[in-house]
């Protein structure tokens, strides 16, 4: 029997493709350019990461990203963390875990409910880059989508 | 019988009714003579200073300790909750070996503890100590590493691991001060200070106040070496160098997650060689990739302190030739990749950090640097990924890292052969709930994967091959492979196969902070859902409470025998190095 190689992301997207997006959720703005997690940094190294040219060019504009919603830090938080793969650790519950490098913090226009893990979401919002500390939680982020909205894919 | 039980119950209830003070260090603490430590008494009630009486072996404590403790009228907890009064005396030193019984009384509260202060041999038996720790190293990891690396014919191993031939051995109990269970912080802290502590704590006893940096400190081995010797110190790990195990060599905090502060503690002690991951905590918060919340640039601070910086394998080799005497090697922003990913599969984060050195290269380089000091050295080497891959039940990655760890042990033994005044200690810090129960054979008949699990005689022998003789199996996805089974975990899919596309992620979190099986593995042919048996907020497999097997060789290793607490290991090391001689 041949060993079958499986990519986690492919399997997830594949298994969820059959789910139709609920009709009541508005589709993201058509014009917004797509930004992927691979697009975020131009270089990654021990002495730091460098934002990609694409991020610099799109800053201040509306962009669309796909990823997973990490469970909210606290119920009333004004933001959530968008991750490339579903969060398998809880950075605030466990002492020996940290967020991945390539997270994006999403500030919503209006309060929204959590989307189940294992579910890909599509988020649109205004791209912002550079370090910023959330005044309420002290959470430091490097990339943000402001005034955002999202829907399950 | 019933009378006895009733009497016992009555005694217990009485004891429970009275308020009890807590004294740190705790009862039965063993303390290296001459080592500074913090003394603290916590009273449950708020008391007046004149009502507090503390004696040591019947005498007023001030006479024996030589100084007066500060009195805290009210310690505050979370939301300013009043916790009671306390006495604190920092940096107490007891130079004379012997038993010290401390009695603390305030009103109805009374507590007595006895410490044993110990000296060491007058003459050092060992000049160098190499302490190699396989994080989470359990018996199954060793057995699997031996079979995978060396093979087996007719029931006899075709070769031996380097750790198999160390002369001395002990069973190590790893429990913490608060539970039968443990973590790397508490256990490595016990190895490196001689004091057991609580889960998540490093170089301190865990007191009741919320501040993580005010807990009663005990001296670390690195500090004792700085105080008593001119030896060099080396720290090598495949984790972030602020992670619990490497941190325990130098750090004092109630919370191992204080990684930004631990970076500063590392700079305070200035080990001559520091190699590992975790550069994110060296970068000021405005540098993308930083995990600090301040602007401190520790790369610069280390360079200003005379360190040569290396950020990949080639720079490390160059740094070794610079003769600055101090090397800081940071090869990853976070934890370094596993040997399986680095050397073979190129998965994990290898694409981002393609030129990471391995544990063996780092160990050999550290030995070369540290041994330049004629006074000798202490080197700590940690194979972090044995644990980091056992948590997510990725047994193949954990075992390949065990093989790499054993090669680091071989490097240490090769050094000791040329330098026989070297004590080698090889141990784990806790175990994992994992066992090898046989093999999985793809050629076996059956539709279900469990039908292909070979047990007893049907297990046969696995068919790993090592054609290139590098000690690693040429591939891990052979048709008849070892079946390692975890005895605990969250809900997850068992695929009966190595995870060739990156480390296993068994479960993901939902909005209730509960972990559910990661559906990414649902469609792997033959995958079955395994229902978890730990609380639903547990993200991965947990440490087991089972004893650890410690092995040792070289001068002083005869101190390791039978059953020992992990805190007893320290005493053997400091005795071999004669850190508290009667005649200094």
Summarize the structure.
The complex is a heterodimer of chains A (153) and B (584). Chain A has two helices and seven strands; from the N terminus they run αββαβββββ.
Kindly estimate the percentage of residues of chain B that lie in beta strands according to DSSP: 25-35%
Provide the CATH architecture of chain A: Beta Barrel
CATH topology category name of chain A: OB fold (Dihydrolipoamide Acetyltransferase, E2P)
Helix content range of chain B: 10-25%
Shape label of chain B: globular
**What is the H level of CATH, i.e. the homologous superfamily of chain A?**
Protein of unknown function (DUF3299)
The main pleated sheet of chain B reads as: 10 strands, mixed
Task: Count structural domains of chain A.
Answer: 1
Shape-level CATH architecture of the largest domain in chain B: 3-Layer(aba) Sandwich
Helix content of chain A: 10-25%
Low-confidence regions of chain A: 1-29, 90-96
Number of domains of chain B: 3
- Classified by CATH, the class of chain A is Mainly Beta
Total number of helical segments of chain A? 2
Going by CATH, what is the homologous superfamily of the largest domain in chain B? Alkaline Phosphatase, subunit A
What's the alpha carbon Rg of chain B, rounded to whole Å? 25 Å
